[in-house]
């Protein structure tokens, strides 16, 4: 019995979904509506004290943090290997996973909030804003809400974030000029960890960051999107996304 | 042939040292004098583009990022196991390693800079400060230098950082009330990852955070300090630290 608590549009939850699909593991989904702040419900906070998605519950085991979850799935379900056997390639894989968590995630987050949450955040009264941010266990998230609601990021600040992403894409283009996948010749958790952020960059109309300028990244994106696992991202959007 | 580039007082480098000692792996040390900014030497930047310690070179393989390095050592030298076999305990181990990287490291860093770098940073001319920070590949480090040199952290800011550490220590005390070590009944990379930060808190006179208030943490600290591996931290201090 394996249950994934996710939001259809949350990048970290998408990493876990892709891993489940690649490994052909049976799962049940529970959708957490972030716009309704269901991630702060006391019952959910018991599973995930940070109040974020995803959370994995496998039998009695609760696992949080997407990078930890996908390594857990690899340990618990070793079939359909997504972690290369050579220690040096595993190190490469984990370096990319850490770069996704530390640099890509943190840099794309303000850009995403500006695009998707700012106009809503600016309609909130001071009282509501205070109430919402006070409920957030992660203070860095509360700070971003405060910023987009009341003191929007300047163009200079946003371009610093974008520049950090471009640095990673440069490293990625160099790596993919040598190897088929990020951790060598095998598709791995590193490629999975990076995938949702490319989908996010498409939502932000940032395909210009690779199309025509970083050919090895552009080729990698095509190969990623052609994998059967990728279709799960559209399926959960249809299941749980806004009905328009 | 295994070489570790370290600084005697750098917490992340100490994680790797402790792992090498626990696993009884032979190694050579190269000391990087951070006060002389040797981490920005072009030759070192070729190994470690982020310009930080540690860097591990094993045969031809260069591995950076301390959490990635210690998992690499476990993969490459499986004897003297430091990663529990059960997937659920491995997930626990990695959750703690990630908490150390994401929360403990980032929260203790400003406190350490205030104590150890601020008085020096404030003597720097604008030109020198600009020159030093411009050379730093990691812009978050440059920002901390800028802060301690020119607009010191307020007491309120520092107490927010300290509070984040206290939250982690609360979780740790709960975990250690259940299990002997952070990832269960076996000493693991999670305990190693946490150890240098306790040494750092002692340097910052913060033993009050556990002595008499968080008994399970206090007991864990005693057991950590009694391990033969712990003595390496004093040995590198004697080898490379300030001669007074």
TrEMBL record, chains A, B:
InterPro entries, alphabetized: Glutathione-S-Trfase_C-like, Glutathione-S-Trfase_C_sf, Glutathione_S-Trfase, Glutathione_S-Trfase_N, GST_C, Thioredoxin-like_sf
SUPFAM superfamilies (UniProt xref): GST C-terminal domain-like, Thioredoxin-like
Superkingdom of origin organism: Bacteria
Span of domain GST N-terminal: 1-81
Gene3D superfamilies documented for this protein: 1.20.1050.10, Glutaredoxin
Domain GST C-terminal: 86-243
UniProt xrefs under PROSITE patterns: GST_CTER, GST_NTER
PANTHER family listed in its UniProt record: GLUTATHIONE S-TRANSFERASE GSTA, GLUTATHIONE S-TRANSFERASE-RELATED
Identification of the protein by name: Glutathione S-transferase
Naturally occurring in which organism (per UniProt): Roseiterribacter gracilis
